[in-house]
Amino acid sequence: MKHTGKKNALYAQSGGVSAVINASACGVIETALRHGRQIGKIYAGRDGIIGALTEDLIDVGRESAATIRALKHTPGGAFGSARFKLKSIEHNRAEYERLIEVFRAHDIGYFFYNGGNDSMDTALKVSQIGESLGYPVICVGVPKTVDNDLPHTDCCPGFGSVAKYIAVSTREAALDVASMARTSTKVFVFEVMGRHAGWIAAAAGLAGRKSGEPPHIILFPEIPFDAERFLERVKQCVTDYGYCVVVVSEGTAYGDGRFLAEAGTRDAFGHAQLGGVAPVVADMIRQRHGYKYHWAVADYLQRAARHIASQVDVEQAYAVGKAAVELGIKGVNAVMPTIVRKRSKPYRWTIGHIPLSEVANREKKVPREFITPDGFGITAACRRYLEPLIAGEAYPAYRDGLPDYVRIKGAPVRRKLKKTFQI
Question: What is the reported pLDDT for 422?
Answer without folding.
Answer: 80
